[in-house]
Design brief:
heterodimer, A: two-stranded antiparallel ribbon, elongated, B: alpha/beta, six-stranded mixed β-sheet, about 30% helix, mRNA processing (chain B), Thioredoxin-like protein 4A (chain B), nucleus (chain B), mRNA splicing (chain B)
């Protein structure tokens, strides 16, 4: 790969580093010597760039210097009432400066990331584990500067740079590290890069401070709710008031969320969806169980405030104040204890009759326990005719009229459900004899004791022959007054 | 005391209470407050009136203060509970061969409420005798 496309590839892929091996022997601008320090670590393909300037362009750019100068000037003047009272805020030069500051702060962030990668790659030879222990780029840079080429970490004073737990972890890891001291030039370059990162960080802080001081003028309503610091940060990350106002509230809630969840650190305690909004006064003031709820509420209302500010609807921050009061009232309401439970008297017995349900489902359920035609026939007996019984001779269960000759039915089937009867009604003309529902071994003839062979009359079951179904209400019944011609 | 456990201090009040409830069962506990089994009964009764307030009301009568009913209702035990509905005495078959009254402290609220509900249902249907859901034949005193 030639050096001309090197810078482009970095600028294009700031998020994920390119895996290509890159040779960088000549450098146009600084003319420094190239040192190949990565021959030993062939297993991990690393970027082998040597000059920071080829990738970290922002700090040396004209734009950066211009804006920083303007910011310094404006800060020197101090906060003052803007003489510009036009309706279109975008025309105000100070507003434009602030917009530029916002974009600049995003760019500074990106630049810091690039420099951090550079430092990390160089320092890997010395202390590889450090990059996974200390995630924050600025903290990392400070640490690198402090430790330098020192192998024994007990000689290094890390107080104030990191929380004590991290210091302990770092010291312990350093004692067992597999790194070797860097060469003199490598070290010099690394420390230079650290300085640059820290300088950028300072610049960013300055810019944010400036924006914050002007917050009351730019976005009074938003600052009324979340405070000017958080408002400045939100605007910085969003890239301007217009961008912020176009976002839905759920996005505003996430602005500023740290995404670094490296393996080894538990994610159980890491609260999800926490951005700048979480660190506002209002949310931090609520009890921990209600914080997520408060976060959402504040994000929603602050989005409204940002929209008001964008359209310059209310310059006196009254709407912001109202929204803030609303938020506080709601949070108080959530914390109220629930109303005491009243002992309820028992209802009067039998006062509300049981609700009887109907419908198809219930009818189908009732069918399972309904009295079937077979059982009805078995319950009745013909006069003067002894019934058959299961054990014969009058012992066992009696079968009543079941299976008796002349009952009009050959075989009493298990019984049609009423719904099936409705269907049968439609097709009753078509049913001659057995309509295919019986098995192939059954015949239409039946052997009865009295008449020998009996053939059933298909019309007969419609008439009075079967005493089981009332023909008046029968589903398959016909008009009763009209006599059917046989 | 507790909610709605009123004392009736003379016979007129007692009569009035029995006759004037149209919608609810009137429960009268005859006894004296100083007796131990009465006190037990009252302990168990504390929560009950709030729950049954829609269909029953409880009154307390001290038989020393109002001796008029002692002969009529045969109040010879320290505490007695009787049920009335619309000026009619409702008998309860508890399995103890005395259907007129309950002579002991019923052990749990739920049992007592069940008896009262049964009395109410029966009385509404104009029955003079209802069958208690729980049989007390072996539990009576012993």
């Amino acid at each position: 790969m030639d050096k001309a496309t090197l810078a482009d590839s970095f600028l294009a892929d700031l998020e994920d580093l390119s895996d290509d091996e890159i040779q960088d022997e000549e450098v146009a601008e600084a003319g420094e010597e190239a040192v190949d320090a990565d021959e030993d670590m062939a297993d991990v393909p690393i970027l082998n760039y040597d000059d920071l300037d080829s990738v970290a362009k922002l700090q040396k750019s004209q734009r950066f210097h211009d804006i920083m100068k303007k910011v310094d000037d404006a800060m020197a003047i101090g906060a003052q009432e803007s003489s510009f009272k036009g309706t279109v805020v975008e025309d105000d030069p100070e507003y434009q400066l602030i917009v530029e500051c916002n974009t600049l702060s995003v760019d500074i962030d990106n630049e810091i990331t690039v420099i951090h990668n550079f430092i990390r790659d160089k320092y890997r030879a010395k202390f590889p584990e450090l990059e996974s222990l200390v995630l924050h780029p600025i903290d990392y840079s400070r640490l690198v500067k402090q430790i330098g080429n020192e192998m024994d970490l007990t000689l290094v004073d890390l107080e104030g740079l990191l929380p004590s737990a991290t210091i302990m972890v770092v010291s312990v890891t350093a004692s067992t590290t597999s790194g070797k001291p860097l060469s003199e030039e490598s070290l010099k370059k690394t420390v230079e890069a650290c300085d640059r990162a820290l300088a950028l960080d300072e610049a960013k802080k300055k810019v944010l401070e400036f924006v914050e001081s002007r917050m009351g003028y730019i976005a009074p309503n938003l600052s009324a709710i979340v405070g000017s610091a958080v408002a400045a940060k939100l605007m910085g990350v969003a890239g301007g008031l217009s961008a912020l106002s176009k976002m839905p509230a759920c996005n505003v809630q996430i602005l500023g969320a740290k995404k670094k969840n490296l393996a080894g650190f538990s994610t159980a305690s890491a609260l999800p969806h926490i951005g700048f909004v979480f660190h506002t006064e209002i949310v931090q003031g609520t009890p921990p169980p209600l914080r997520m709820k408060a976060c959402r509420l504040v994000a929603g209302k602050s989005t409204l405030a940002a929209r008001v500010d964008f359209t310059r609807g209310d310059l006196s921050a009254k709407i912001g104040q109202n929204l803030r009061e609303e938020i506080q009232k709601k949070i108080e309401k959530w914390q109220e204890p629930p109303p005491p439970k009243q002992p309820k008297p028992l209802p009067v017995p039998d006062s509300d009759p049981k609700k009887k349900r109907g419908g198809r489902r219930l009818r189908k359920m009732k069918e399972r326990y309904a009295l079937t035609d077979m059982r009805k026939l078995a319950n009745r007996m013909k006069f003067g005719v002894t019934e058959e019984s299961s054990l014969g001779d009058g012992l066992g269960e009696g079968y009543g009229m079941l299976g008796q000759a002349g009952s009009g039915k050959l075989r009493v089937s298990i019984g049609q459900s009423k719904l099936a009867a409705k269907v049968a009604k439609k097709f009753k003309e078509k049913s001659y004899g057995s309509s295919g529902g019986t098995s192939g071994l059954s015949s239409s003839l039946a052997f009865t004791p009295i008449q020998g062979i009996e053939l059933s009359n298909p019309q007969a079951h419609n008439a009075f022959g079967s005493g089981t179904q009332s023909t008046y209400f029968s589903e398959t019944g016909t008009f009763s007054k009209i006599k059917k011609a046989f | 005391m507790s909610y709605l456990l009123r004392h009736l201090h003379n016979a007129f009040h007692v009569d009035h209470a029995i006759q004037n409830e149209e919608e609810r069962v009137t429960i009268i506990r005859f006894g004296c407050d100083s007796d131990t089994s009465c006190m037990e009964m009252i302990e168990f009764l504390m929560k009950v009136p709030e729950k049954i307030t829609k269909f029953a009301v409880i009154y307390l009568v001290d038989i020393k203060e109002v001796p008029d009913f002692n002969v009529m209702y045969e109040l010879y035990y320290p505490c007695t509970v009787m049920f009335f509905f619309r000026n009619k005495h409702i008998m309860v078959d508890l399995g103890i061969s005395n259907n007129n009254k309950i002579n002991w402290a019923v052990k749990t609220n739920e049992e007592f409420i069940a008896i009262i509900e049964t009395v109410y249902k029966g009385a509404k249907n104009r029955w003079g005798l209802v069958v208690s859901p729980k049989d007390y034949s072996t539990k009576f005193i012993y």
